[in-house]
Write a structure and sequence with these properties.
558 residues; alpha/beta; TIM Barrel; eight-stranded parallel sheet
Length: 558
Amino acid sequence: MVETIFDTLNAKAAIFALERFFGDKGVRLPVFISGTIVDNSGRTLSGQTNEAFWNSVCHAKPMAIGLNCALGARDMQKYVANLSACADCYVFCYPNAGLPNAMGGYDQKGPEMAEEIRPFCEAGLVNGLGGCCGTGPEHIAAIAAMAAQYPPRPVHAVAPLLRLSGLEPLNYSPDAGAMRRTFLNVGERCNVAGSILFKKAIIGGDYDAALAIALKQVQQGADVLDINMDDGLIDGLAAMTRFVNLCVADPEISRVPFMIDSSKFAIVEAGLKCSQGKCIVNSISLKEGEPAFLRQAALIRRHGAAVVVMAFDEAGQAAGYADKVRICGRAYRLLVETVGFNPADIIFDPNILTVGTGLPEHNNYAVDFIRATREIKRVCPGSKISGGVSNIAFSFRGNEAVRRAFHSAFLHHACAAGMDMGIVNALQVREDAYERLDPELRGFVEDVLLNRCENATERMLEFAGTLDPKCKPTAVIRKGGVSGATAKAKEASWRDFTVEKRIEHALIKGIDEFVVADTEEARISGRCAPRHSFALAAAAAAAAASPASPARPPARPA
């Protein structure tokens, strides 16, 4: 029994040790897991909601899961109800005898505690009951007598979803009729291979700047954060460990799941060992043969992570439709039948390859990916499809309108075929909705993507040469001309608020970039309320002492 869990990462370490013990000894014993909600925020001390906690530990396939300690029965009921709804195993709870008195003791007697627990039984929330702090034989006898009047909770099945977590749960429920709407945006900017700013920050040891990049992605709509430290100038193991630990300590960043991304498995494990949530590993493949693939897959499952499988095998990268389907089908059978992976935790990346290169053999790459997506979803039930979307338009780097239009149009067609998620610029893919693309630009782009004519690339290059390379695909500007669409009004910013509201916003969000200027404006205008004086002075002093340090949100209170 792994119990009184206030830090899910410790619980995952205990589960990992149990799984290793079971494997070494060739036996399997029932596992009970019990978390602790520390107050009425409904979170563990390390910040997770109880459903996020369940998503993090459900890979252990426990016989029972529950809550204990910290709260009395009355305060615990709603959290047990939530756990009961999402867990497909037995559920139990053993609360304290109420809350402690001023001396740290417990005054609640057995009959009173039993009555507080009665609603659990009436609602059919639990299969087992007990007592924690402040309870003794009298309490257990009273609870047992009360509970004997009710049937136990029936164990129910849950939908076979991809269930991830940071501080909060992410239960991916795709809408087959609108896959683009339910598409998961995996933020691409915390990847040293994909972001020059992030790479410079990591190489320079400026982890505050790196964290600011992560935070901005979450604020701009990333559902998952991709983190990659693979670079010859970086100690990937140390950088991954430090950065993930810092992300976990930031409640705004760590509320979303992480995608631990590396071609080196030791770096993948370093990232997994730091995260209490349920992560995605990106990636493994059959490139080094089945033994290495199975060993890595078993370790990933033991860590409780989902996995991205690249369409590579011993012969190399799958470029065409048939190879993509064949390799993914083989990997699926190994993961499900040999390793025991939940199909919902298997994510295939069938290789998004660059089109528009001028080489005829590349012309059908997008079509092959889209066709393979549809077939892989059919022959590998429950699996998901992902990919690095920016790969599709490498030929057009430097031309923002064309590159972003390729991303949007590709996602439109790939999602229609069943693509579930992708590594993207979350803000851009939201702004560049397919329906809003410039119609003429979209036509040229789709000619290339869908390989509709032999000279599609030449026509695309000719048209791209007429565009301002910095314009947007939804508001195309010809060189030396004007936008083809009416510019939208500038979105309202918190910087447009009154000085009092700007200061209030900055204090709440932990933003120190403008604190000196705003404080001086408030002082001169005489509009600074006395209650803000100390906080403003402290913030201004901190900003002056470290002017280059970006803001960090305040830690979640225990």
